[in-house]
Amino acid sequence: MGRWIKENLVLVSGILLPVLLVGGFFIINRLPGLIADPPAHDFLLIAFQNDYQSPQNYYLDFEVRDGKLSGRASPIDEDHQHINRQNAGIFLYRANINAFEEIVFDLPEGLDQIEESIALDLAMTAHLKLDKRQQSPDGYQFEFMGYRGHGGVLGELFGMGRRYENSYVLKKGDHYFELPEVLSNINLYQNDLQFMGWVVEDSQL
Question: For the residues of 33-86, what is the DSSP string, one character each?
């Protein structure tokens, strides 16, 4: 075997060097993910359901004030005539199980006839203290990755610049933590997600 290797050194080098090169890229690309701690903080998302085929007289809007989620329904006016956010879902990400949990709330009646803003009843989220800063206390950020280019064959095999199955991830430095699909079972004309904040204790604000 040793004699054969010596006689075919060029051939052996031509086979081993690409393998070692690809292996090196794989280790460099994967190492941050192997040593990074998984996300530890829950967070809250609003999933707006946009129906451009059936526009309504109102739109929904949410914000975080003093660490609490608030929402309102407002009548469409000239400044907001292109907003079609008539339906929305509240989703709580549970970091310990890597899953989203929907928080169900009811819209007020008679929204098609409203003439001024109406506050939404979000009592079911009152126990959540939210930090709306972009970065979590443990260093993660919620990011959209849907238009991230993939790296061809090498990208698919070794994760170098690849496209993620889900469009949203948690990013910490060079580490990308893939999130489960939020609206996989909802058939919508169009939807978009709005990050509202990390669930924290008062001492973390």
Answer: HHHSPPP---EEEEEEEE-TTS--SEEEEEEEETTEEEEEEEE--GGGTT--EE
What's at 89, amino acid-wise?
G
What's the pLDDT tens digit per position in 143-197? 987 644 444 444 444 444 444 445 788 999 888 898 888 765 554 445 678 999 9
| Sign of the alpha-carbon dihedral angle for 50, 64, 135, 204 | negative
Q: What CA–CA distances, in Å, run from 15 to 20, 24, 128, 153?
A: 9, 15, 57, 18
Q: Which residue has the tokens 């009811």?
A: 106
Which of 39, 170, 50, 43 lies closest to 103, judged by CA? 43
Whether the CB-CB separation of 96 and 161 falls below 8 Å is answered with: no
Q: Tens of pLDDT along 10-63? A: 554 666 666 555 555 545 555 544 556 889 999 999 998 776 666 678 999 999
Could you tell me the pTM of the whole model?
0.72
Q: How far apart are CA 124 and CA 104, in angstroms?
A: 8
Residue 141, beta-bridge partner list: 135, 171
What are the sequence ranges of the domains in the chain?
Answer: 2-35, 43-204
- Alpha-carbon span 32 to 173, nearest angstrom: 8
**CA dihedral in degrees (17, 20, 25, 26; nearest 10)?**
140
